[in-house]
Amino acid sequence: MQTRTLGHTGPAVSVLGLGAMGMSGAYGAADREESVATVRAAVKAGVTLIDTGDFYGMGHNELLLAEALRGRDRDSYRLSVKFGMLRGPGSEFAGPDNRPEAVKNFLAYSLTRLGTDHIDIYRPARLDPAVPIEETVGAIKEMIDAGHVRHLGLSEVDAATIRRAHAVHPVADLQIEYSLISRAAEADILPTLRELGIGLTAYGVLGRGLISGHWSAGHTAGPGDSRGFSPRFSSGNVEHNLTLVEALRQVAEAKGCTVAQLAIAWVAAQGEDIVPLVGARTRDRLAEAMPAAELDLTAADLAEIEKAVPSGAARGDRYPSAFMAGLGVGN
Fold first, then answer.
1. Per residue of the chain (331 residues), what is the pLDDT tens digit?
2. Distance CA 59, CA 53 (A)
């Protein structure tokens, strides 16, 4: 698989990464055996970037990855870990905690659960309004200097925060939702990243399955599936959004690929500094996604995709209103 380097200071990683969140209940029940097999299949296929969060399933995701990666050469893959989101025993979110002492505490638990001596890219999941970003980054820098972390990452913050963090320690990459239906990063975020030499890892490249080509009108989210609370999947919005998918399907069929492959390839085509994260939960979905890494989109292809799904065409916010307030950019 081709590789890309995350910014001027980050590691070289596969052109597609694996996002593991869905393996820990975010979209309803997941089969552990299949999840482990999917991680192993991804690594076998050449995926070297694996993204997780210590709050995904309250540690479940890190333990799952430890099992799936056990016995593999630690230098053969890169672990990207988000931290700082407090959870309750009922899985409710209780806000961010990015205090320096919390950074070190969260890191200690992640290292133990993952069974490793270092995290390749460590990032606060959301900005903590009660803690200056300089203090959070300063604590991560201490952990880099101590060898527990290799690179600093950020997630879902605005351009001003990126600049402030980068002034304390070089930022390897920003993780942010970026897809055909979530393009807010194009206005200020991407230009700032490129000015500073920071990479972008894009999550939600299939809109949580909405633009995968597999979601259909009338389909409802099952128990524990967070999409049941997503404005883009709500009645009235989802029907409109699926018309965009059908327009995209026509482009995909003309190109000889699936809707999902086209949507992933579009993200990768937006720049050599962008690495899409594929949130496959099964080997079948992974097998469908992987050819996107080799899909060459011409200028004519990109123009047709833009006509099918113009910027800002989707209806509904990408998160419920309570979560939107904590983001550095909008939809």
1. 999 999 999 999 999 999 999 999 888 889 999 999 999 999 999 999 999 999 999 999 999 999 999 999 999 999 999 999 998 898 788 899 999 999 999 999 999 999 999 999 999 999 999 999 999 999 999 999 999 999 999 999 999 999 999 999 999 999 999 999 999 999 999 999 999 999 999 999 999 999 999 998 888 888 888 898 899 999 999 999 999 999 999 999 999 999 999 999 999 999 999 999 999 999 999 999 999 999 999 999 999 999 999 999 999 999 888 888 889 898 8
2. 8
Rounded to two decimals, the pTM is 0.95
CA–CA distance, 66 with 86 (Å, rounded to integer): 22
| Contacts of 25 by beta carbon, 8 Å cutoff, 6+ apart | 57, 60, 224
H-type helices in the chain, by residue range?
A: 32-44, 60-69, 100-114, 133-145, 159-168, 189-196, 237-255, 259-268, 283-289, 299-308, 321-324
Instruction: Map tokens 């030499």 to a residue.
Output: 197
Q: Which of 56, 77, 122, 178 is catalytic?
A: 56
76/330 Cα distance (integer angstroms): 35
Distance, in Å, from the CA atom of 155 to the CA atom of 174, rounded to the nearest integer, reads 5
Number of neighbours of residue 170 by Cβ within 10 angstroms: 18
Distances (CA, A) of 296 to 8, 222, 301, 302: 25, 36, 9, 10
Tell me if residue 56 is catalytic: yes
β-strands 199-203, 274-278 pairing: parallel
Q: What is the DSSP string of 6-18?
A: -TTTS-EEESSEE
